[in-house]
Structure formats: structure tokens, C-alpha cells
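Case study 2.
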Amino acid sequence: MGIIVALVCYTAVAVIKGKLGYDDSLDAFGVHGVGGSVGTILTGVFAEKAVNAAGADGLLFGNLQQFGVQCLMLVVTVAFAAIMTFIIFKIVDAVIGMRVEEKNEIIGLDLTQQSEAAYTVIE
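Prediction:
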């Protein structure tokens, strides 16, 4: 499972991110989002009672139901994360706003928000 997830995560970070052009400087989505999703599904495929007697067999051991449970939980988790993110976004936007002033963007957020000049060119 680790090899499969590693290859999928590498593809998500090195190929798909570049093609879609989304901003993820720490590759959190490509590693944790994609890797966690693939791992969740593969758990439903490879699960085996011989490894965890308290668990259930997966798809490769004849248990389609466990595979279905894993897929359902993935959908529920993604929906929960999306809904909660939207709610938190709206609350923060209402309370303090989601954008800084345009002049701060022009000067640079390193300098105006963190008082750091690491990447700011001062003329």
C-alpha cells in the first residue's frame, strides 16, 4: 500500500499540481489529501483478519461490504471537510475579512503582515 500511495502522491505533486495550477506550497493536499484518500480505499481492498483479528477482510478476501464502507467514509470525510471549511471561511470573512488591503499586497505581505523583509525588495 505504501508504494502505491507514494507513487500516487508523487504524481499528484509533480504532475497534476502543475497541470491544474493550484496553489499548495507545502503540498499538503497532494500528500495528505490524495495519500489519505488512496490509503483509505486501499485499506478496503487489502484488509485482512489475519493481520487484525478485530477488523474485517477487504475486497481481495471476498468482502465487498468493507470496501464499500471505506469508500463511503471517504465521501463523508471529504463532504465534512468541505462544508466545515466553507463555514469557517465565511465566519472569518465576516469577522476580519479574507483579503488584506491592496496597498499591503503591493508592498508585500512579508513586510506588512509579518514585519519580515526576506523576499521584499525595498527601493
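The chain has a mean pLDDT of 92.
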